[in-house]
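Predicting holo structure, magnesium ion bound.
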Amino acid sequence: MDQEIRDKYQAVIGLEVHIQLLTRSKLFAGDSNRFGDEPNTNVSIITLAHPGTLPKLNKRALELAIKMGLACHSTISQHMIFDRKNYFYPDLPKGYQLTQDSTPICVGGKIGIATHIGEREIELNRIHLEEDAGKSFHPHDASESLVDFNRAGTPLIELVTEPTLHQPEEAYQLLAEIRKMVRFLEICDGNMEQGSLRCDANVSVRPAGSMELGPKVEIKNMNSLRNVRRAISQEIERQISLVESGHAIASETRSFQEKTGGSVAMRTKEELNDYRYFPDPDLSPVEISDHWLQQIKESMPKLPHQLKTELQKDFGFSADDVEFLTESPEMYEYYTQTLEFVKDPVTALNWLKGPIRSYTKDANLTIADLLLSPMQVGELIALVEEGAISFSQAAQKLLPELLQQPHSKPRDIAASLGLLQIRDENILEETVVEILKAFPDKVESFKNGKKGLLGFFMGQLMQRTDGNVDPKLANELFSKYLN
Ligand code: ADP
Ligand code: MG
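Done. Tokens:
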């Protein structure tokens, strides 16, 4: 699209993010909240709301929701109720979803993000607790539907931002930050492919400079960060094109199409349900005591932005480096553990950022999958530090072999591969003397000024030792005999 036309409009984006909580059981029942079990095996009569059954709130889910609220500087509601949201759908066995309409557990708040156009704080509207629905499958085509109720009743928090984002990139960064936060808080695994983190994007456009909000379109079913950004970019273009050609934007819900990056209409505003929210009569209001809230506050782990500031302050690392080290709790943990075995923080960083990252990237693994312990990586680095092996030999030969034999000691592998440099000065000295004896004319020429011959002598030494010498030491020995 022409930049000139694009600049006539401002996009407005608000996100609704569903975060599946890592509890053992469901939000209001004791059934297992485990992903990937045989379909319809974790479904109790409470999950199905059979007559006579009563829901009971999972305290752990409440705690995890509060943690997210505290991390986002939200106000925690200490008095709340749950509401029924009524609608009919095959994956909703109760005919209603238990959610929070009027008293979300967390009100307001903000999340800081950094984009290439600067740092911003994105305001949140609310974070509320709710139960998930089951899952429908259409194995062949739309004519065949299967439903798995294992997911029905599992605990979610829904985080709703204010409509204050303007760039697809900001939405991407916000979602990336949320994913990091939930992982560091250990409240959700943040896996978008498996749907434990899901994001709906609300998008509208308005003439640049206008304060009024245009009609919004909601886009669903993006299964990666990248696709959220793609979907929003395309939606902004679609809306601008429509407005430019004199059409009105229909408030509707659209489904993202992975292949094209575009979307197709699912339902329009007219088809919207009237959810007839009302307080669930089977659940009593919830009070959160000051004491418990204080306990949760004290149990809060450090969050990625705090860890970044610390790393910058302690080691003077660049923004990119601290971003790398806090990309996941596993990475941060691995780094801090490696520091127990490696004195220099920069050396440890460079190994993780260099050879280790290129290996995990090529093998499509994360640091959590790495079979080497921080101690082994520390031992490997120590071999280089003490001059027993060169960096390039360590990175290109020893590391790949160690990854094949992850239970071996780096020093043993280096020895078996013949990579250990000859650091015994006596052995090296003998070889140097042998070489000089073998080439008396060259020694003569060297003494007469052909200093370039040092390279020739070094070459001979490398040949005779398979390259396993400490170049500095070899240099010193040649100088000793030639000068
Ligand atoms: P609804 O009444 O449709 O549920 P809400 O006001 O609750 O809408 O907002 C839902 C989400 O849509 C929020 O993330 C909000 O920021 C966003 N949103 C609301 N209005 C707009 C708009 N005009 N353009 C873009 N996003 C919007
Ligand atoms: Mg709403």
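The first strand starts at residue 9 and ends at 20.
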